[in-house]
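Checklist before submission:
- one chain only
- standard amino acids only
- sequence pasted in full

Submission:
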Amino acid sequence: MTPYDKIFENNKRWADEQLRSDPDFFTRLSQSQQPDFLYIGCSDSRVPANQIMGLAPGDVFVHRNVANLVNNVDLNVMSVINYAVRQLDVKHIIVCGHYGCGGVRAAMQPKDLGILNPWLRNIRDVYRFHKQELDGIAEESRRYERLVELNVLEQSINIIKTAAVQKSYLARGFPTVHAWVFDMRNGIINDLKLDFVQTLHNIQEVYDLTKD
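Returned file contents:
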């Protein structure tokens, strides 16, 4: 049996296990979704959103791309945020990066990476914003990890800049935005403790989109 064929065997086993433990599982799952969480993470295959959060199917609305970027001209991620906030009423939006991120590592290299150049430029911009801090870190591995963290924080701020998030929070008190980094070396999520309310207040001096 090939690895591809084995997927269907695994799927059947998983479906049978769900039904044995909860006969109504798929009935509920097929009716609607009301997740409290939107998770925006890296496409890296080693960081599965539901599993690291300990949540079941239907609990997390998920968007993933290389290096967990939130680019305001990326209609994919902007559509996901808009739908999650305005239609699904999510209460929390999480940007989750991870140590060992290949996208962040690539952005630190002085190389022409073809079609990846415009995408990774977003991370290079993060480096430029925080160049003094990053250049002050002598150890390359720690500088790399810090860029992972700063990238997550900057992408979280990009979410707070959106009209959907600003208007929903003003009207309903949610969602709030969180910045996480997953450590594959121990399986632990590191909460970077983004101060959502203060960050929203600060960025609205320039990015206030709450007026119709």
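Reviewer check: The two ends are 58 Å apart (CA to CA).
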